[in-house]
Amino acid sequence: MPLALIMSSFVAASRIGGAAQQYVLAAHKIDPVLAPTAMFGRTPAKGARGEATSPDVFRRMLGDIEADAVFGLVDLILTGHFSSAEQVEIAAGVIGRVRNAGQDNALGPRPLVLVDPILGDAPRGLYVRPEVADAVARHLVPQADWITPNLWELGFLTGREIATAAEARDAARALGRPALITSVPAGEGEIALLYVDKARAVLLAHPRQPSAPNGTGDLVAASFGAGLVEGMDPLDAALRAAGAAAEAVDAATAWKATELPIVSLADRIVRPTAAIRTEPL
């Protein structure tokens, strides 16, 4: 049975962060283990006041997960929100320990590391502390097999102003990590993911809704990671992730839902039918 270790936030009533990713991974029959970096009742975007997991508690929690011999079962490590630079350093050490744990009982030969560098967005800019953003860039991005930044985060990581898909492609290749970039401009009335590896760059576009619940980036990262664990070609996994995000946003719009309906849409997230326009760059 495949297993994923998530190090990100837990938000009880909102379909964002690691808690939402648990549902996405479970729909793909991947067992999720969440070590929360922060805990909230609902999204902080609505003014919720939560609490960061102290580094001591975070370290002990991960130590207990390791003590149950879970590290040797991990097929996917998914990192997201961090509240402190010390948490990031702990997570970076855990990645190394998982990779050294031996994968005799895991589904794949080695754990895949997917880093979603949750740092900020336009126009607000950074919404984590600068030292957290610096720690993610220094300690996590270099260990990633894949990164899933939004357009603004990719610009932050590369020190570039990025306004177009072509500029995003060039920035990702300069960073030296395969990437699935969210919130990329496409054609009129569209929003896109941009898939970039050493050989390929493909825009995956779908119609933009006037508004969308928070959490689409979390959904994309988990869906893409699930596809990698399942052995899909990465571009096919990215195409499915784009379809899953479009499916969820379209349903939320039709149902006037304030949160992404991940649980009710589980089958459609695993097998999305939303139309995605592909454009090689």
Automatic annotation (TrEMBL):
A cellular component annotation (GO) from this entry: cytosol
Annotated ranges, domain Pyridoxamine kinase/Phosphomethylpyrimidine kinase: 112-257
One annotated GO molecular function: ATP binding
Alphabetized Gene3D superfamilies for the sequence: 3.40.1190.20
Enzyme class: transferase
Keywords assigned: ATP-binding, Kinase, Nucleotide-binding, Transferase
Keyword Repeat carried by entry: no
EC number: 2.7.1.35
UniProt record, GO biological process: pyridoxal 5'-phosphate salvage
InterPro entries: PM/HMP-P_kinase-1, PyrdxlKinase, Ribokinase-like
Protein name as it appears in the record: pyridoxal kinase
Species: Phenylobacterium kunshanense
